[in-house]
Each structure stands twice: as structure tokens, then as C-alpha cells.
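Recall the central idea of this unit: under ordinary conditions, the amino acid sequence of a chain determines the structure it adopts. In this exercise we apply that idea directly, starting from the sequence alone.
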Amino acid sequence: MSEPIIFQVTPTHIGVRLDHFLGEQGTEFSRSRLQMFVRDGHLTVDGAVVKPNHKLRGSEKIVLSEPAPTASTTEAQDIALEVLFEDDDVIVINKPPGLVVHPAAGHHNGTLVNALLFHCEELSGIGGVERPGIVHRLDKETSGCLVAAKNDLAHHSLQEQFAERGVTKIYLAIVSGGMSRRNGVVDVPIGRHRVHRQKMSVARAGEGKEAKTGWRVLGQLAEGTLVECTLFTGRTHQIRVHMKHLGNPLVGDEVYGKRGNFTRQMLHAWKLGFNHPRTGERIELVAPIPEDFRAAGVGKLLSPDGVPLVDAPRQRRMV
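Accordingly, the structure predicted from this sequence is:
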């Protein structure tokens, strides 16, 4: 465990919330990470554990004791990975459909984490013993770009970029039916379904969490419409819920629509962009179009490098 970090509050901060005070101190930690330290009891104010919204009196001593990363006990397994980018800090893979990201109930082995532990000499320990290196997730059936952190510096940086919405996240989705417009934005909150708790749903005003998805039609397919979706937030099942809200659930999505002739929900994390945690260089990657998308006719709408051929203006190529 590293040495504790000590802050001395002065009268200029009387009445200031603890989380706001911490955000002004210029530490290496993101705001969300600092709030987690407070909630988990790793930060004390005059020896007491308090809440993030605690109001300061102007004379307190604040001690932050960062917990040591926990080593993973998950088994390393030789599972093939398609690597899109890798260096000493991060690895980006093209996750195949059907691969669970991390061990959980019913999936203790054969996950992406098992594969990463075999492939990488080191992964960050911030995610805990079951989720080393994992900064974000994709559903089991969703394919495409996923970045993992090899060390804590990278994990902190990526975590903050996701929290501050500095990560570009563009998906391909095949939705049922035809769209009434060529493009648009869905800006409605998402929350846990009131009856079916394993599902998410559009929430009523004042409930749920903010969720915003931009979309545009790339072309028509025999069994639906190919849509490009841009995530401005990152809620659970966001694209699936928002497309259902528009009346066009993803084809193959047996939770929010119908399985039909497909073996999975047709959602692909197509493009991912982020600032390199160490150099600050912008990294932009494209996951190749999966075979089941091509079998559905997507190859007639997109060039091999992913540039739309019809129904949409050309885009700058991302490499």
C-alpha cells in the first residue's frame, strides 16, 4: 500500500462539500475514483468515515489511504484473441460474440479475463480479483472493440476518460423494420425495469440515469436496417433499449425483441477512440465487420475498411 495522502482543510473551504474539495486538489485520481474511496472508507475526515457530500468546517485533517491492488486468482487460459492494438499500457481486442468479459455466476472460466491473463504479463488490479484490467464491458453477444488496462496508470486514465465522456464509442446495429427518419438522437433516461429486474427500460421523468444515443441509417438489408449508433453515455443495454424505444429493436435480441433467424443480438462495437494514458496521443481503432453481419448483407453497404458505400456521406477513415 502506498503512503497516505494528507490534506489540511483551511477556513477558505468552510461549507464546501468534501467531493468538491477533493476535486480541487489536483490529485492523480479521477472524481469517480475519489468518490469510491470515500464510499469504501479509504478516506477519513478527522478520523471519521463520511459521505461524499459531507460539508467541511474549515479545519479538518483529511487522510486518503489508497487500497493496494488485489492480485487476480482467476485462471489464465489459452483462448485466442484478435488484438487490434497493444503496448505496455493497454490492449484493445476485437471481442467475438459469445465471449463473456469476466467471471461471474455461471461463467467461471472461458472468459475474456481468462484469455487476457494468459496473453498479458501484467494487468491492472484495480478491478479486483475477478476483473483485472477491465475498464468497461460489452454484453456476451456483442462483438467488437474492447480496451483493457495493463497497469494502474492506464486504468485510472481510461476510467476517467469514460467517466468524462472522452471516449469515442460507435456501434453498428441491425434493427428490425425500416426507420421513419434517416438520423436522430435518443435522449431519454434508462433504469431498471419495474417488473422484470434483469431488463432495463426507458425511465419516467425524474427517474433512471441520463442516456443519450445518436443514430443514422447506413442502408437497408433484407431483414432490417443497418444503423450506426454513437454512445454519448454508457448505460447498461443502452442501444438495445433506445432502439426498442424507437420501435426498431435489434434483430436477434430475444430480450428486447425477437431472436428470429439470428443466433445473437446484432450489435457490434465498431469504432473506439481514446487518449493514450501515457503519451496523450489519440488512438482510434476499427473492429472488422463480423461474418454474421456480412452474411446479413452489410458487405454491400460498407467497404472492407468500414466506409459506408451508400445512404451516408463518406467518413474519415480511422486506423
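The domain at 5-64 is CATH 3.10.290.10 (Structural Genomics Hypothetical 15.5 Kd Protein In mrcA-pckA Intergenic Region; Chain A).
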